[in-house]
Structure formats: structure tokens, C-alpha cells
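Issue 218. Parser rejects a valid record. Input:
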Amino acid sequence: MNLRQRIITMAAVSITLLPTHAQETARRIIPFVTAGYNYSHFCVNIDGRSSFNAGGGAVFPMFKRGLVGVRPQLLYIQKGARSHFEVYKKERTVKFDANYLELPIDLVLSGKPLATRFNVSALCGLYFAYGIGGKTTASDGIYIYNRYHVGDEPSTFGDEMNGRRVDWGIRLGAMARLDRFFLTIVGDLGVKRVMDSRITRSEWDDSPMNAAILLNVGYEL
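Output the parser choked on:
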């Protein structure tokens, strides 16, 4: 076999193996969609509220064995809380709704390769969020700072409520995966104050911060 024939043979083998290599590379990145329930509050002595979240992301396995991966997501998530207190001998309620675009970035730790048919993984990481909307509803007669009357439905991030749009914190949780389906349970714990304590009427803490438990199901694409 002369040199020309060898080059043609090697090129043919390379072209034959290229689809297989592309498929193996594609399997290393696992895109997914997810949605679920979350229960949130302000890390202070007030009640929480139930809401939902939805979004998508991808898992990027790392190292040769694929036991560790990075799992970024982009979620639309509703957070907030409820505050009950007494004004002029009447029970009053304020409901805080805060909608965020949230970017969680988790480290995935598994005892088996992440692409195996069934595995259970630990999740830990950070989240970064930006408030895009939400309203605060209140009983009649509630005043903020003893000066500002809360209207029918003022914006949570507007001038009256003065909610902080930027939020970030830590995440801890677990994931169970079967074939292309998975279930996750994760706790978000904010480290940045998002609301003034004089608005939430917290008696125990002057730094209301977001906290949430997310229970999600998802499907790998």
C-alpha cells in the first residue's frame, strides 16, 4: 500500500468514526427542562407562601468518569411572604409577591456516572436573581413608615415598597434521575436583604432575606 492509499484509508476511517465521536460528545452535555413547586418566605418571623418555578438548563459532566458535573439553569421563579400584624386592634395582612429571573449554578456530585440510567446526586452551589415584577396586596389601613399608605396593589420593587431587585445566595439539595426523568429538592438561602424590616414588621430580625424550598420534576432533552 503506497502513501496515497494510506492517506485515503485513514481519511475514510476518520469520516466513519466522526458521527460516533459527535454522539459521544453530545452525550456529555445533558440539556433539560424543569418546573415545580416552591415554598418561600423572608427568613424572619412571618409566614411563607406557595408558588411555582419553571425553566431549563444543562448538565456538563466533568472528568473522565463523569461523577462530577456543573448544572447551570435559568428559572422564572415566584418568591415572597405573608405578614400578619395588628393595627388599631384589627388584624392586618400584607402579601408580598416577588417575581425573579434566577440563575442557579450547581455542582453535581454522584456515586455513578451522571449519564447512567439511574443515579442519585447531591447538589450544592449559588444562585443569582433579578426581580422583574410582582405586587404587594394589603388590608385597608396599613401604613409604611407611618407615612406611606399602601395602595391596592403597589409594585413590590416600586417606590412605595422599595424592594431590592438584586438577590443572591447559596443552594443545597439532591437529585434522583431515572432514564430521562428526574426529581430535585433544593433549598435556596439568600444572603442579601431584599426588604425593609419596617415593612415586613419583623420583631426578630432586621434583615429580611429570601429563602425557599423548590420541589421540581424535569425531563432531559
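Fixed in the parser; the record now loads. Confidence is low (pLDDT under 50) at residues 13-27.
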